[in-house]
Structures are given as structure tokens and as C-alpha cells.
Design brief:
- This protein is α+β, with helices and mostly antiparallel strands and 811 residues long.
- The protein has 23 helices and 34 strands.
- The longest helix has 27 residues.
Length: 811
């Protein structure tokens, strides 16, 4: 924590008051004493060809107790058994009979839930090393449990340990929530002795069966880079048996409802089969499908397939003091608003694959595959560079290879990213500010150049360090992307990021002329290339896995001063496999520089900008300037970046987005039409045209900060007094109710009454806002300690129950 002053009015007479700012640091995990292992542990990593798919249906009260469930047992693709299981305490005798009659009529097996767990979960799934498949598996696993505790072990601490079987010698199932898209799931080691006397004598151990769990929701997000419901995923994958809808949840059982439930488990299987096939096409044999948790998992699987060893393994002796300096320069993407609550004409532009592009320009792939990095002093060179740097120098692609440099500066009214509390009692957030600090701080060279461009003044440099890669790792091998031999990448001779974008643009061009039967395959391939380029060009390099600790632990923290200090924490941040913070900070710093260049060029051209968001900027038309004149100047800014295109297919790296073009007969034309922006705050904006009556026609809008809210109404009952969108909601980026709300916000702004947004006619918008969340951690579940006290387990709010929260008062 530092005391610094930056240009931010807080009500004091001078308008400037020193405020604390925060920088990231590096705190290596403390070294805990390791327990001596008497036997070698060899976990089983290969599942058999058996698959168990299951789904549960529950009561609709707070307990969400299991009523019944459906399942399939398969060997390969062959269906061996399908059926239902039920909870005898949740259903009446008549409902038991109804389930049994339904099963008998349709040739299904039927089990009480305890027998299902014994026969299918353990008898088939556990004993035969089957893959367990479901959609939102944590919820379904929690329905089967007869009890739970907080999970033990460093990897699963912060999760739950479920007891599915009354036999204490049976393993439990641990689940640790990681995000809304994924969770870690595994069996515990059985508590009884599992090693024979001979094994113990030889120091051997029976492998621990951790199980193989695939949540289709997680796998779909990793392979499509989108969040899906089972219904939307089925539509995307075009499965044979789509998920149906029903209004019978929690009501009396009927044949239609039982058929609906059986259809769910079939739809889950079909989605899994399609996604598994897509994944197997990648040929990533070293990373099985049950190890794919996110897009980053896919990226890491490719790095592993190419034989790329993680940097921390290659250079384990890298000084923690230098890691602290590197982490202190990390800020992430730039997102801010410049014209607020005013309708301004804009040209909305977006950088082509921003992170892969700056990786390619800086030649960072060479660092990824290196045996390590070396540092040298670059102080004199940086001082000369920052003294003379102009935008013209940055138009030379070769200059960008010199950017892997960190610089220690003493800020004196320089413009830098700042992490601070901009309001009392607020959390730390990041903004670009005019910063003055008595203590020296470290920034990327890209940030220093951006400051020079924006202020025109030289910086006070203390020192600078250049980082260069060592020799290339040995044993690297080529891979075929998505299993296609035409998409071969050699990590030694190819720039991986450049090659991926080249391949993707080639595939996208083929999609336009491909026959319908080939188009689906090509779309899947271009999506895989896009996901892979994004997954390997940033996130994995700054990945931390947070581990909760039972007690406060002491560790050292390294920051920008190189002086380590002790801190006590309840959470330990363990770096991910491919953790490489130097790459992460260089990439994001270069992206911020791209935006700063755009801003400088716009101001030099006599125009302005309305907002920016990580890889995009809306150039703004100043008052009094003719639209044609503005358009000419804005396009000159956009074309300035053309020489920086590092790809085979030449074109503008800064693209004019589709939202700028006129819609003719439901299709986007090649004619630009005046586009307007209404921005409220960072990441909260709408872009729109005006129709013949001066009414807004939304082209793009932000749902940032609204994702946790339940939709107050469906599209079928959308208000008739708000025009339907002219482009698909997926292109606008919002749901229908969010579109309608933005319409009213923009309408009020155009009317000159931005504080008087009418909610009349918007169903549900005048009632308390509701959000759904789940009790995903022991901490969240403790909120219901009072409610659960004294209730039998089956009547309690339990882990992963879906809960509703309502806004307590009108904002």
C-alpha cells in the first residue's frame, strides 16, 4: 500500500488530497511440513468405457429434496440400462406405484435411491471406473447425499464432502466450486486399509480411485466459450432428442412429467457425446476429457501436447523479489467512459484479436517456449526512448519487439493505471489517472510510452530492466489443431498465436462459400481456433488457485520495493501450471498502449472518444463538426494501425464494427450509418441508430452488472410499445428485458430527462429485483445456520441449493 496523489477531486479546497493506492504483490505459499508417505500413491487416471448419466428432480421448497431421478448406464455408445430412482420419503405410496408402473410399461429399471447408489453409483460407476456425466453435477450429487461436511485436504478445502452411502467404509464425494461454470469433483480415499500385507512390505499402494466426473455444462463452456442451459446447448449441437419444457416441477407426478425427466437424461447424454467427439478430434491424448474445466484447460492441453514445459518448472530459482516487482505492474484491461450521459455520434472500432495480436507483435511466443528468461539493465535506452518517442515510431512493427521491459518511475503528474478506492467504503478499482507519488513505482514500458503520448512530458526514470528469452526448450513437437492435418503448427518454427489467427481467418473465409453440410464443421473449427488463441495468449499466465486455510498462516509478500514483509492470510494463492506473470503484464500493458495510441491519434485529428473497453474504442464526433468530416478523420485514425497487422491476410487491425453499418432488409449492408453512444459508466453503455421518428434502434448494449438478476419477463410478453430489435439479441449482447430497459434509458436521455426513466409497461420492472444464487461454499451455507437449526437433514437448506435474493428497497 502506497500514499500517492492523483488528479481526483474529493471536495478538499485544492481538489487534490493524497490517497492510498494498492498494487499487486507476490506471496509464495508457505512451506508446510510434509507428512511422510509410507506408500507410493498412484491415482488411476484412465476411465473405462462405461458411462453413468444421471439427473434429479426435486421438491420446490427451500430444501429442494430429491423426489426422483433418471439415469442411463452405457458401455461405449451402447445403452445397457436406463431407468428411474426415487426417494421413498418424498413421494406418496401412489406415486411410488406410478413410477414403478411407468418403468414397467416402458421397460425401464427402477430403484429406491439407496439401492441406486449401491448398485449404479458404486457398483457400476465406482467399481468399473465409469465416467459420471450430468448437467450441473454438483447439485445432483448433493441431492443423493445423506450428510455432508466441509472438505479436507489442501486441494479441496473450501468445498464440501458428501456422504452418499451409510457405510462409513465407502468413499465420500468431494465437490469444490470454482466458478459459475465449473467445480472440482472427486471421490475420497476409502478410510479402511486397502493395501495387502505384501503391498505394505514392498512399499506399494493400491491406487486411489478418485473417479471421473464430466459436467456437461462445464465441458460445453470450455468448447464453445459460452454459458448454456441444457435446452440452448441441445439447439446449438443439434441433438436428436431436444430438452422439453414443463410446468409440472413440484406438482403431482404424471406420465408426461416422467417422460420429460427421461428426456433430460437422454439430452444430457447426446450433448456429452457430441462434445466428447469434438474434443477427441483435437487429439489431446495426454489430457482426458474429464480434465477440461475451461477454455484455459483446452489451451494448457495444447501446450502440453506440444511438449511445452511450464516456466516455473524450467526456472524454479527465479528471484521472488523480481516476481513481486512484476506482479506490481499488473493491472489488466483498460475500461472507462469519457463522455457520460450524453448522446454522442461515434465510430465504434474493435481491435482484431487484441491479445494474440500484441503477443505476436512483441514476439512473446518465443518466451513461452524458452527455457527461462534473462534480465539486463535497460535504463539508458529507456530514458532515450521515452525522451524522443512519437506515435510514428509505434507504427513500425519491429519497435514492438523492444517492449518486454519494466520501468521504475517516480510519477509526477504522469498518467498511469491506478488501483484505488474512489469512494468511501468502496473496494479497490482500477482507473487511468494523473498520478504523483513520492515512492517509486514499477510499470511496463508500454504504460510509460502511453503516459508520454497522453501528457507530452518526459518521465522521471529510476531504472529499467529488459527481459529476453533463453534458448528454446528441447523436445517440442508439432500439433494439428482440432485434429486437422491442414492446421498443423510447429512450436519451434511457427509463432503459435499468429498461426492460429491466420488459420481462423482462412476457415472463416471458407465458411462463406462452403455447402451447408460442411459449414457446421467449419464453424466448429473456427470457434476452436478462436478459443485456443484467446486461451493461450493471456489467462493461464496469471492464473491463481485460491486455497482456504483452517487457520491463519504467515507468509512473505514481495512488492515493488523488493523488501519482503510478513503477512497473515486465511487464503493462499497457488500459481497455476503455466503461471508466467511477466507475459500477463506485458500483454495487458501493450493492449492499454493500443488504446492510448488511438486516444492520442483521435485528439490529434481534432476528434474525441466516448468510451473504451479492453480492446475497443468508440471515437466521438465533437459538437459543431459535420458528420462526413468526423467520419473521414475517424477512419484515418482507424487506418493508422494497418502497418501493424502481423498476419498473412492483410486488413485493418482496428476494425469498424458491424454496429456502424446500416441494416437493409434485416441484413447488415456495407453503408455506414450514424451511430450514437449513451454511456453511464465503465462497461455500461448502449450504441444505437435513430429511426425516421428520432427513436433509438439499439445495435449493441452492455449487460455488465445485470447478469445476476433473473429476467423479469420473457420475450413472448415483451412490451408492444417498444420496437423489437432489428438484429438478433445475441449480436446486441443482451436479453430482451435488458434491451427494453436500455431503450427506455436512451429514450429518456434523448428527451433531456435522463433521471426520469419510465418503467411503465415493462412487466416486473416495478417489483423487487430477484437474483438466483447457490450455496456453493461452506461460508455461504452458514448464512442458513439459524434456518437449518433443529431441522432433519432432508428439510435443511443444503449445499448447491438454488436460492433467491430480493432487492430490499427501491434504488
Amino acid at each position: 500500500m502506497h500514499k500517492a496523489r492523483f488528479d481526483y477531486f474529493d471536495g478538499s479546497p485544492s481538489g487534490l488530497e493524497p490517497m492510498p493506492i494498492a498494487v499487486r504483490g507476490y506471496a509464495p505459499a508457505p512451506a508446510f511440513p510434509k507428512r511422510k508417505r509410507l506408500f507410493r500413491q498412484n491415482p488411476v487416471d484412465e476411465p473405462s468405457d462405461w458411462v453413468v448419466v444421471f439427473d434429479t428432480e426435486t421438491t420446490i421448497d427451500a430444501a429442494q429434496q430429491l423426489r426422483f431421478g433418471t439415469f442411463q448406464v452405457r458401455q461405449g455408445d451402447e445403452l445397457k440400462e436406463a431407468g428411474l430412482f426415487y426417494d421413498t420419503e418424498s413421494l406418496t405410496a401412489a406415486e411410488h406405484d406410478q413410477i414403478r408402473h411407468y418403468a414397467e410399461t416402458h421397460g425401464y429399471a427402477v430403484y429406491p435411491v439407496a439401492e441406486f447408489i449401491e448398485t449404479i453409483i458404486f457398483g457400476v460407476g465406482y467399481n468399473l471406473r465409469a465416467t459420471f456425466v450430468g448437467f450441473n453435477l454438483p447439485f445432483d450429487i448433493a441431492r443423493l447425499a445423506i450428510g455432508h461436511n466441509s472438505a479436507r485436504g489442501s486441494a479441496m478445502r473450501g468445498g464440501f464432502s458428501f456422504q452418499p452411502h451409510p457405510d462409513p467404509h465407502k468413499p465420500r464425494i468431494q465437490v469444490k466450486h470454482l466458478s459459475s461454470r465449473c467445480a472440482l469433483i472427486r471421490f475420497t480415499a476409502p478410510p479402511r486399509q486397502r493395501n495387502t500385507r505384501g503391498q505394505r512390505r514392498r512399499g506399494q499402494s493400491t491406487p486411489v480411485r478418485r473417479g471421473f466426473f464430466v459436467d456437461v455444462k462445464t465441458l460445453a463452456a470450455a468448447l464453445t466459450s459460452q454459458s448454456h442451459s441444457l435446452a440452448s446447448l441441445g439447439r446449438l449441437l443439434k441433438i436428436d432428442h431436444m430438452k422439453h419444457t414443463t410446468d409440472e416441477h413440484g406438482g403431482p407426478l404424471s406420465e408426461a412429467y416422467l417422460t420429460y425427466a427421461m428426456g433430460d437424461v437422454q439430452a444430457t447424454w447426446e450433448c456429452f457425446a457430441v462434445l466428447r467427439h469434438r474434443y477427441l478430434r483435437h487429439g489431446l491424448t495426454e489430457t482426458p476429457v474429464h480434465r477440461i474445466y475451461s477454455e484455459a484447460s483446452l489451451g494448457k492441453a495444447y501446450l502440453k501436447a506440444m511438449g511445452v514445459h511450464p516456466w516455473r518448472r524450467q526456472q524454479p530459482d527465479f528471484p521472488p523479489e523480481m516476481l513481486g516487482i512484476i506482479m506490481s505492474t499488473y493491472y489488466g484491461g483498460r475500461s472507462e467512459v469519457h463522455w457520460r450521459r450524453e448522446a454522442v455520434p461515434v465510430l465504434y472500432c474493435d481491435f482484431l484479436s487484441m491479445y494474440p495480436t500484441v503477443c505476436t507483435l512483441m514476439g512473446l511466443w518465443r518466451t513461452v517456449i524458452a527455457e527461462g528468461i534473462e534480465s539486463t539493465d535497460a535504463t539508458d535506452w529507456v530514458r532515450d526512448c521515452l525522451q524522443s518517442i512519437e506515435t510514428a515510431h509505434l507504427q513500425d512493427a519491429d519497435f514492438w519487439t523492444a517492449l518486454p521491459v519494466l520501468v521504475q518511475v517516480v510519477p509526477e503528474a504522469d498518467i498511469f493505471p491506478v488501483r484505488a478506492k474512489y469512494e468511501q467504503d468502496a473496494s479497490f478499482t482500477i482507473g487511468l489517472n494523473q498520478l504523483t507519488s513520492e515512492s517509486p513505482l514499477w510499470y511496463t514500458l508500454a504504460d510509460c510510452i502511453a503516459s508520454k503520448l497522453l501528457t507530452g512530458k518526459a518521465l522521471r526514470i529510476v531504472q529499467a530492466v529488459r527481459f529476453t528469452p533463453k534458448a528454446i526448450q528441447k523436445g517440442l513437437r508439432p500439433v494439428s489443431i482440432a485434429g486437422n492435418p491442414h492446421y498443423r503448427v510447429d512450436p519451434v518454427t511457427d509463432d503459435f498465436y499468429c498461426r492460429l489467427i491466420d488459420l481462423r481467418r482462412t476457415v472463416k473465409d471458407r465458411v462463406k462459400t462452403a455447402p451447408p453440410d460442411e459449414r457446421e464443421t467449419l464453424e466448429a473449427e473456427q470457434l476452436a481456433l478462436k478459443i485456443l488463441a484467446n486461451a493461450t495468449s493471456y489467462g493461464s499466465f496469471v492464473e491463481f488457485n485460491v486455497e482456504e486455510q483452517d487457520d491463519c498462516v504467515t507468509t512473505l509478500c514481495y512488492g515493488p520495493s523488493e523488501q519482503a514483509f510478513s503477512v497473515k492470510v486465511h487464503q493462499i494463492e497457488k500459481p497455476g501450471t503455466f503461471f508466467h506473470p511477466l507475459l500477463a503484464t506485458l500483454i495487458t500493458g501493450a493492449a492499454r498502449l493500443m488504446l492510448a495510441i488511438t486516444e492520442r491519434l483521435a485528439l490529434d485529428a481534432g476528434i474525441d472518444w466516448a468510451f473504451c473497453d479492453t480492446d475497443s474504442m468508440a471515437l466521438a464526433q465533437p459538437p459543431g463538426m459535420a458528420y462526413e468530416d468526423f467520419l473521414s478523420r475517424a477512419q484515418s485514425v482507424q487506418r493508422w494501425f494497418d502497418p501493424l497487422n502481423p498476419y498473412e491476410q492483410k486488413g485493418p487491425p482496428l476494425k469498424i464494427e458491424d454496429a456502424n453499418y446500416r441494416i437493409d432488409n434485416g441484413r447488415i449492408s456495407d453503408t455506414l450509418e450514424p451511430l450514437y453512444c449513451w454511456a453511464v459508466s465503465s462497461k455500461r453503455y448502449a450504441l444505437f441508430n435513430l429511426d425516421a421518428n428520432g427513436k433509438p434502434v439499439l445495435r449493441k448494449a452492455s449487460a455488465h452488472g445485470l447478469g445476476h438478476l433473473l429476467s423479469p419477463y420473457r420475450e413472448l410478453i415483451a412490451p408492444i410499445n417498444i420496437p423489437a430489435p432489428l438484429v438478433p439479441l445475441s449480436e446486441i449482447g443482451v436479453e430482451r428485458w435488458q434491451h427494453d430497459l436500455w431503450y427506455r434509458i436512451v429514450e429518456a436521455g434523448l428527451r433531456g430527462t435522463p433521471d426520469q426513466v419510465s418503467l411503465v409497461g415493462l412487466p416486473g420492472l416495478t417489483t423487487p429485483a430477484a437474483s438466483r444464487y447457490a450455496a456453493t461454499t461452506p461460508v455461504l451455507l452458514r448464512w442458513f445456520k439459524t434456518y437449518n437449526e433443529g431441522k432433519p437433514y432432508r428439510e435443511q437448506v443444503r449445499p448447491f441449493n438454488f436460492l433467491l435474493a430480493f432487492q430490499g428497497q427501491r434504488l
